[in-house]
Design brief:
It contains 8 helices and 4 strands. With 284 residues, the chain is α+β, with helices and mostly antiparallel strands.
Length: 284
């Protein structure tokens, strides 16, 4: 969800600039910093951004500055000026003591300096077009960042896959060794040679430490993470949920561990999951 784009374009005697920034957020939060001339097009700009993204805190800044080669110009409303001059003469003819209008008063007269509505409309149209272009660049930067994040996550997934394959082959041996150790302790604690009783206790405990289901679920979740990444599109929320499920299975794996290797694997899984989870916060 992080991204950045900045573009500028000359429109008449003005330089129109747009800047887009986005940071992480669970929802779509749009903020606009616009000059007064562009306030009327804010709904159109908002619609553009909403259609292009679904999550992130996005700031859109626009600015209008005189172009470097633009000479300052004042557009005088000639019709209003003539009417005002005529009224000034008539009033002073009727009231000789009346003070004539000053230049400053004339310039500040409402409507005297034409606001060039045609130019303002051109700026508004250009602002929408410029944002479309900036949004395409913005999406491209986010896509490049997304490719890097995807590669990182797939690399962690592959490491977990390899580790999962290793422990799946080690689990039967680890459980058998633990059961033998447990049988010796039971004989000592129960002070009995009743093998049937011992086998019963071991069987009950074996059910509790069976991690086959957790290993299967871990594999299934890893497959789903890969599928979601390959499918593309907005995947952040789905991936975040899968990280929670992976972490849950890793915790259960650690709680059922019967060997140092399984405990180490559980910790390694949780570290890899946390690394992925932190980066997934940057994915829409």
């Amino acid at each position: 969800m992080t991204g950045y784009a900045a573009l500028s374009r000359q429109v008449g005697h003005a330089l129109l600039a747009v800047e887009l920034r986005s940071v992480n957020s669970r929802f779509l939060d749009l903020q606009f910093r616009l000059p007064e001339e562009l306030r009327p097009v804010e709904p159109s700009l908002r619609e553009l951004l909403t259609s292009g993204m679904s999550r992130g805190k996005v700031e859109c800044r626009m600015a209008i500055q005189p172009a470097a080669d633009a000479a300052p110009q004042l557009a005088i409303n000639e019709i209003l000026l003539a009417a005002l001059a005529n009224s000034d003469r008539r009033i002073r003819d009727a009231m000789p003591d009346a003070q004539p209008l000053r230049v400053g008063e004339v310039l500040h007269w409402p409507g005297m300096l034409a606001n060039d509505e045609t130019g303002a409309e051109a700026l508004r149209e250009a602002s929408v077009a410029l944002l479309k272009t900036a949004l395409a660049e913005f999406a491209a930067t986010r896509a490049r960042e997304g490719d890097k994040l995807k590669a990182m996550i797939l690399e962690r997934i592959e490491r977990m896959r390899q580790r999962l394959a290793q422990i799946q082959s080690q689990v039967p041996e680890a459980i058998a060794a633990y059961q033998e150790k447990l049988a010796a302790r039971l004989r000592e604690a129960l002070a009995t040679t009743d093998d049937e009783r011992i086998r019963h206790e071991i069987a009950l405990f074996g059910v509790k430490i069976d991690i086959a289901e957790e290993l299967n679920r871990l594999g299934a979740h890893l497959d789903e993470v890969r599928r979601v990444l390959e499918a593309g599109g907005a995947a952040g929320k789905r991936l975040d949920f899968l990280m929670q499920e992976l972490n849950r299975e890793a915790n259960t794996l650690g709680s059922k561990s019967v060997s140092k290797e399984l405990s180490d694997t559980s910790l390694e899984f949780k570290l890899l999951i946390e690394q992925m989870r932190e980066q997934i916060q940057n994915i829409e």
